[in-house]
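Fold Annotation — chain and its backbone
Next Lines — sequence and tokenised fold

***
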Amino acid sequence: MFRRILLVAVFASAALAQSVNALFNQVNPILEDLSKITGWKVEHTVPAQILPKTSFRKYMEDRLKDSNPREIHAEELTLKMFGLVPRDFNLAGETVDLMSEQAAAFYDYQKKRLFVLDSTPDGDEQRMALVHELAHALADQHHPLGKYMKQGDPDDDASTARQAVMEGQANWLTWAYIAVHAGGKPEIPPRLLDEIAASAGANGPDFPVYTNAPLYIRESLVFPYNQGTRFQDAVFHQFGKEGFDEVFLHPPQSTQQIIHPDGYFARRAPSIPDPPALEPLLGKEAKQFHILTDGALGEFDFSALLRQYVGEREGREAAAHVLGGSFRLYQNKKDKHAILAYASRWDSPEAAKTYFELYRRVLKGKWQNMDISSDTGSILAGNGDNGRFEVRLIGSSVESYEGMR
């Protein structure tokens, strides 16, 4: 029995080695083709190897172990306070499961090496994964990706926008490469753009982690690919080849600029309000709290939140009017209970009022119990699952406190 299994393993390894050689022999020709499309010179070849899926999972687990546990806890708690994930959601574990399920290949911009997972089917899927990662590698040779992604706070809306630049550009170049090899122009045919942009994220019964993940988690995974691809297409038609450099030299400042590229072309910067302080609400008691985490919010965040609790059409339409937002998560120094305070600024008093009214439905949807003690049309207050809350409509802004005792 063991000898039979051993022989099968030997033949399987030989077949894999032949397949790997055929795959990685394409690295330099692909780089040259991508160079012609982008105008970027190939500075050096890119080492590549097949990586077992189990090794990739361990790679992800090790990266999370190297992360600051306090930061992971703070991010998880923020998602729960906003109602974007369930109360029993484990962010670290779900992230590893999701990435292990969805990944086909990846480029490590610290080691300057790319990896194709052994679970990626031979043929076209492996080749597409290779082209995508080589697009990252070529960009990295001209605009170091590690430095690019370290600008600002990693949890800010602008960081999500920069990730959309990276993934959207690589995805666009993959399909432009395919178009060239099919005898077409080095671009995505307009008739295929919607289909390609919507193809990110493998779901269905074979992909239970993604299929069952909360909306915000699924959207966080696919947004850089689908909306990033649309953004890159708009940039290419605006700037031509110069656009490949432009998005690195002048990064988009918000996810709104990714969703609405005209805002990027016009350099319309987000208008981010300061998150509300605790002192006006709690007085001296505010000294019992420290800031656990804070960050900027953008159209991506508001769209996901509203779509989850209000509906697809109303959520998208309302979120498109946000100019910027910010949050701050406070934690009591003694009993560790948290208060979420956030502010959003809208493009008109009418848009702010619309969000104020829709947010009432968000609160009702994310909590099992909600008792309203005051509703003046501009102030909504009461008690929810996390404690007391107060939402204020102030001109073109909306402020919220949640979790007070």
